[in-house]
Amino acid sequence: MGYVIEPVNKNKIVSHDGQGRVDVGVDVEFGNNVILMGDIKIGNKCKIGNNTLLRSAVIGQNTTIEDNCILGYDNISGHFYDRGNKKGQEYTQVIIGENVLIRNGSTIYLGAAIHDNCWINHNAIIRENSVINKDTCIGSHCICQDNIYIGEQCLIHNFTQIAAKTRIESCVFIGPNVTLTDNSPIGYLRDLPNTIRGPILCFGCAIGGGATIYPGVVIGQESVVAGGSTVNRDVLPKSVVGGNPARKIKNINESDRIKAGIRSLFGIE
Fold first, then answer.
1. Which of 256, 262, 199, 260 is nearest to 231 (CA)?
2. Distance CA 212, CA 191 (A)
3. Which of 119, 179, 196, 232 to pair with 34, CA 20 to 30 A apart?
4. If phi over 0 gives left and psi between -120 and 50 gives alpha, with beta otherwise, what is residue 177?
5. Rounded to 5 degrees, what are φ and ψ at 77?
């Protein structure tokens, strides 16, 4: 590191490790101590904050990366993999769309893709092979584990844990401090099959704050899970459930459904 590409202005220098190609658009603003590693492509009118590391990243135009972020965290390093647990998968790039905001302290792993108009809030972690589709907001201190899929126009509040291999369809609401789990049965240091399967949250469902969703559970289209519930079995579409364990309370009213115009956009009647 330390190879100077371009002095942006006084006291602001972009440096590169000397490996790969760097392609920076027009009107790009860099903060202090920005490090570029590997192949980098940055679109027009982007803002890259102080103390930010970009590794093998493609960033669309009008995107802002605030201070102290890592884009392209090297997910195949560390002592866990050194001890023989490397999966044999190599993720080579992180892709960020246009008009994206990534707030202070966030970490995006190599292999992640965040599409246009998303908002990733403070200190969020997005792990490898995860896809976040357009117009979705991820709250502060959320952890999105590997191999997750999140649809369009989702709103996920602060301190939510999204387990590996979770699928979240479009227009889903998740309140704060929700936990989506993926390990059933728990096989750690036990002679049990260690099956990883995250929940499936279908179009337009809503999960109240503090709820826990068990591995592999399907939350049906436009259903509502009451805050603080523990859901250990599938929830039928257009239902309201609550409790520990959660039980059906009622069906949702027509007025409680996702707006008709939005449903139409996604082909939902």
1. 199
2. 26
3. 119
4. left
5. -115, 175
- Two tokens, residue 57: 């990243």
Dihedral pair phi/psi, residue 22, rounded to 5°: -120, 125
Block means of pLDDT (10 residues each) for the chain, length 269 residues? Answer: 41 64 92 92 96 96 98 67 45 92 97 97 96 98 97 98 97 98 84 86 98 97 98 98 98 95 96
pLDDT of residue 75: 63
pLDDT of residue 80: 43
203: alpha, beta or left? (left if phi > 0; alpha if psi -120 to 50): beta
Q: What is the pLDDT of residue 78?
A: 46
Rounded to whole angstroms, the Cα distance separating 146 from 39 reads 23
Among 173, 179, 181, which Cα is nearest to 258's?
A: 173
pTM given for the model: 0.90
CA distance 266 to 134: 13
Residue 255 corresponds to which tokens in the numbers above?
């007025």
Domains and CATH numbers, the chain: 1-74+92-141 (2.160.10.10), 145-257 (2.160.10.10)
